[in-house]
Amino acid sequence: MSHSIKGKTVVVTGGSKGIGKGIAQVFAKHGSNVAIVARDLNVANRAAADIGSNVKAFYGDVTDGDSMKIVARGINQTFGSIDVVCSNAGIFPSATLENMKSKDWDIVMNTNTKGTFHTVQACLPYLKQAEYGRIVITSSITGPVTGYPGWSHYAASKAAQLGFMRTAALELAGDNITVNAVMPGNILTEGLEGLGQDYLDEMAASIPMKKLGSVEDIGYAALFLASKEAGYITGQTIIVDGGQILPEN
Fold it and tell me: Rounded to whole angstroms, what are the CA distances from 105 to 40, 119, 195?
């Protein structure tokens, strides 16, 4: 599987930290050229340097369609192709329904959902030129499967991504482009580490496998969906949660 991804150009939005950086690390490890796209170019450059010489950082704002078209053109000029797009950029601020402002809702939807649309649309001309194109969306179990207090806007954005995925998969099937999604559960990222070990232990105890997932766990799911061998899979989701959603109570 990893051989078919070697030499391919992979775009990872939100790739400078967290799950995005884990995705970038896995693809780079298996010989892909990786373009990390982020709004903070300094952080993205540090992430690229950490990962390897086949990784480059690019400035891009997924909420701005023109910005994404510029960065997609730059990535294609740098590497000569765009073969895989990992639409990963996302935010998850907390706000209850009672206190949420309209602008709070819009900020989350613009980044998580409209950002996926902008990313895919900007990269589409180059994906169509590839031997085969792959789009992998980072959704979540929160929204499509579960709920969490304070995250109604986040949950809605993640469920909306899957509706987008299914129709995009239909539209792009004739171009030999697949569109799938990874749905993470509780993954150990920089943000969670700051909550303290007691909190992390409590989270892990609620998962059947008794541990939090790693960012690389999501990266390997994305790697599979991006491979040549996964070419007959489209419009589908893979839940990566250590069994978190399985218990009835």
Answer: 23, 20, 25
